[in-house]
User: What shape does this take?
Amino acid sequence: MEKKNFRHGDVLIIPTAEKIQGKEEKDLILARGEVSGHAHRITKGDAHLFKFDEKTYLRVTSKFALLTHEEHKALQIPQGDYEIKIQTDYTPEGWKRVED
Assistant: This one.
């Protein structure tokens, strides 16, 4: 079965076959809004978040993990390994992370 990408606001969740390494984060926050303070976070299921060389990885070990945010519909992420990317926009000053 081919795994698909997921989008949750400005967060893109991409299946990966890369070896996940790095420091495991205590909080399961994929992205935090700089303006609103809201967060894209895993609220149900077994999951682990890792950061390594400016990359963020999510490993879902339960059948599903639930990704929530105050302004978006909850999203079920199936078991597997993912790379997390945050949407960026180009400005005359250069690439900039989209602010939530």
In short: The mean pLDDT is 85. The chain is about 0% helix and 65% strand. The radius of gyration is 13 Å. Residues 6-97 form one domain.
